[in-house]
Amino acid sequence: MITQIINISIEESKTDIFKKYRINEEKLDFLGNCIEVRNVSHSDLDELKCFAEANRIELFISTESQFNTNILITKNIFELRKSFSISGLSSAVSILSSIDNFLNYNEINYRINNRELNFNRAYLMGILNVTPDSFSDGGRFRDSDAAAEYGLEMISNGVDIIDVGGESTRPGSDPVGLNEEIDRVIPVIEKISKADPDAIISVDTTKSNVADLALQAGASIINDVSGLTLDPQMIDTAANYNASVVIMHIKGTPKTMQTNPDYVNLIEEIYGFLYNQCIKAKNKGIKNIFIDPGIGFGKRIEHNFEIINRLEEFKSLGFPILTGVSRKSFLGKSFDLEIDQRDFISAITDAVAIKNAARIIRTHNVKFGLQVVKLLNHFIR
């Protein structure tokens, strides 16, 4: 059973929900945050029906198959929290957990490399690609000394996390060999960590062997664009080092992801994937989890804008949201901008993402990124 808070005052959310549950807008006087419970068992469904009737709660049911029943509960979530807390229902634990995750989102805090991160504010992740073929800055830092120097410069300027990557994940890119990726990233991480032992370093990789060596070298976070799916040993590697992880959604692989990506229900499918992968990570003992809906990774232009508009709906997973929009093609295509012209529009989009619940933004232009974070931290509630 998967529970999600959905804001049906957002047009895309309302369209999805009304279509799914065949709701006539004129007959629904509630528009706001409601609860959707998916994959409900027959016994839980019977209990929820009785609960809704006894508490005068409107319940909508969508049965896609005999194995897949979903329900929508339309009522103020504060009132629902109170009702479910005394209900005694077996399904109440999941529902209350999602409500609490959503309401207490700004109270999340992690300790990473002796630093306390409190997510009642946003943080900046600076991109450090040591690749010859990344879509934006490929070839800029192929020398490990220059790359490490730039990483340390970002830290001195106020960047919170340095994300070191040795394999391009641009659309259509081919994977890099293990040894080559190791040779690219490990010396850089070692040099940054040696110069600044308190630096929070993330390794952008899908390979557990790379992650293992990176964590030994001083990295604290594994940023896996495959969402811990391409290498079955990645979760164990993270758990063995008590590492933090970024679980990202991707449809396909970097090589195939932009080949006509399509979804029946975009947010539901991304949410379900992240939910399942987070459960696997938690079951392995991984405590510090970040979720990334994967903007630009197997998404059409309109998908990316919808994700940003509906970021808040991922809060009920209970983990800080990371977004990366920097210089991506959906912005270039939408505003007819070449890669080197996209920093300003990327910064504006980052600001919207933070306002909509992102707590880490991943960017190439750290000057703009720092300004965005500093400004938007005044508006987080």
Q: What summary fits the major beta sheet?
A: 8 strands, parallel
Q: Could you state the order of secondary-structure elements as H and E? A: EHEHEEHHEEEHEHEHEHEHEHEHHEH
The 3D shape can be described as: globular
Percent of residues in helices = 25-40%
Summed over residues and divided by their number, the pLDDT gives a mean of 92
Q: What is the number of independent domains? A: 2
Number of strands: 14
- Order of neighbouring strands in the sheet with most strands: 12-11-10-9-8-7-14-13
Show the helix and strand layout.
Blueprint (H helix, E strand, L loop, with lengths): L1 E6 L3 H11 L11 E6 L3 H13 L3 E8 L2 E7 L2 H9 L6 H12 L5 E4 L2 E4 L4 E7 L14 H14 L3 E5 L12 H18 L4 E5 L3 H10 L3 E4 L9 H7 L3 E5 L17 H18 L5 E4 L8 H9 L11 E3 L5 H7 L7 H13 L2 E6 L2 H11 L5
Parallel strand pairs: 7-8, 7-14, 8-9, 9-10, 10-11, 11-12, 13-14
Antiparallel strand pairs: 1-2, 2-4, 3-4, 5-6
Summarize the structure.
The chain is an alpha/beta fold. The protein has 13 helices and 14 strands. The chain folds into two domains: 2-103, no CATH class; 110-376, Dihydropteroate synthase-like (TIM Barrel, Alpha-Beta Barrel).
Could you characterize what this model shows?
Helix 3 (77-85) packs across helix 4, helix 5 (144-157) packs across helix 6 and helix 12 (343-355) packs parallel to helix 13. 40% of the residues lie in helices and 19% in strands. The longest helix is centred in the middle third of the chain and has 18 residues, at 178-195. Strand 9 (200-204), helix 7 and strand 10 (221-224) form a beta-alpha-beta unit. The chain has two domains: 2-103, no CATH class; 110-376, TIM Barrel (Alpha-Beta Barrel). By secondary structure, the chain is of the alpha/beta class.
